[in-house]
Amino acid sequence: MRFARFKRGMCLKTVDSCFQDLKDSRLVEETFTVDEVIDMLDGLQSVVHSEVESELINTTYTNVLLLRQLFSQAEKWYLKLQTDVSDLENRELLDQVAEFEKSEYTSSNKKVGFYFNQIIIKYHVEVFTNIFLFFNPKTVAHLQEENEKLKTRLRTIETQATAALDEKSKLEKSLRDLQMIQGDQKNNANQDITELENKVAALKSQFEKTLNDTTANQKFLEEDLVTTKHDLLKVQDQLSTAEKELEKKFQQTAAYRNMKEILTKKNEQIKDLRRRLSKYESED
Predict the structure, then answer these.
(1) Which residues form a coiled coil (predicted)?
(2) What are the φ/ψ torsions at residue 49 (nearest 5 degrees)?
(3) Cβ atoms of 280 and 157 closer than 8 Å
(4) Which residue from 8, 59, 67, 147 puts its CA 20 to 30 A from 137's CA?
């Protein structure tokens, strides 16, 4: 504030000296013609215009350098500052600054200066409190660690859902293959289908239990998921063997009906997995 006041005073003195120089150097006659007056005013206008323009440019550059220092210091504290240009035209704030300057240099209104200083102190306390709370390196590191944990959990659930979708695609492919089977159905056909259904149901139950235990014990989930995948491969291998054995045993209508039931159950499993995935995403 003192620096700006000093520069403003120097600029006004320069303008005053321009007028005084005109008075001393040109106004020596008692009468002047219109052309002489116009010439003197044009010369004065040129000098004053040059001085005022130079001072305005210098003030602008000074403000830019000051803002640059403030933003540089803010970056060291990981702050992102924003400016509100509308406040620059706020008449109430401008009047407060004018009152502050007046009380600062004339000491005629101590109350205004004290009020303005209180505002500045309160603002600084709030800023540095927010810096300590939200930009403390330990706090940032802790938040980053928690974020990584949540991302890991989300990737685990997404992997499980993808595996379930792959299993559904394989079962759909098996169903399309069974639709092409033609032959005679024998008495042990229903028994083979029942065994396959029981294995798939057991696999579904085990997989659901694994999903329920995800948040409690992730390591156990990963080990159980590997075991489940091995069991799934075994079931798929048995299913492939059964398809070859049933090639001459099943009739198309019976095979379609039974495998449709399996596919319906797997669709229910996929819906359940999606609901669980949505639940975990909402918690994150």
Answers:
(1) 140-283
(2) -60, -45
(3) yes
(4) 67
CA distances from 249 to 174, 183, 199, 227 (A): 16, 5, 21, 32
The string of pLDDT tens digits covering residues 103-129 is: 876 754 444 444 445 544 444 444 445
The rounded distance, in Å, linking the Cα atoms of 282 and 171 is: 30
Which residues have a Cβ under 8 Å from the Cβ of 214 and sit 6 or more positions away?
Answer: 153, 156, 157, 160, 221, 280
The phi, psi pair for 31, rounded to 5°, reads: -130, 150
Three-state SS string over 179-202 comes to CCCCCCCCCCHHHHHHHHHHHHHH
Distances from the Cα of 121 to the Cα of 79, 94, 127, 183, 219, angstroms = 19, 19, 10, 91, 52
Q: Which two three-digit tokens encode residue 80?
A: 């992102």
Q: What is the pLDDT of residue 99?
A: 84
What is residue 37's predicted lDDT score, i.e. its pLDDT? 85
Per-residue CA distances from 282 to 22, 144, 152, 208, 240 (Å): 78, 19, 15, 20, 39
CA distance 117 to 59: 24
This prediction has a pTM of 0.34
Which are the contacts of 171, defined by CB distance < 8 A and separation ≥ 6? Answer: 259, 262, 263, 266
